[in-house]
User: Fold YJU2 factor from Prunella himalayana.
Amino acid sequence: QTDPENTDYTMEHGATRNFQAEKLLEEEEKRMQKEREEEELNNPMKVLENRTKDSKLEMEVLENLQELKELNQRQANVDFEAMLKQYKELEEEQRRKEQE
Assistant:
């Protein structure tokens, strides 16, 4: 039977639910968010601490994203065809020297 409130299905009889890690993870995240909100309502210092943690996490994510962008940009500038051509030329030159 459908359960639109929870965007899920409810079992009526004779069925078993498969393990759903994603659903459990979502429920855990909701529970943690609810606990955090309740804690912040009672403790203004906790609000400040959480904002600081969130800001640090956001800065780390942005730094990692920037590093990935730079890495991708460096790889995009590498001309693999030219490298292969140069390698083939070196191989041919070595073969000629060996034959001489």
Observations:
- Residues 53-99 form one domain.
- The chain is about 75% helix and 5% strand.
- The longest strand covers residues 2-3.
- The mean pLDDT is 87.
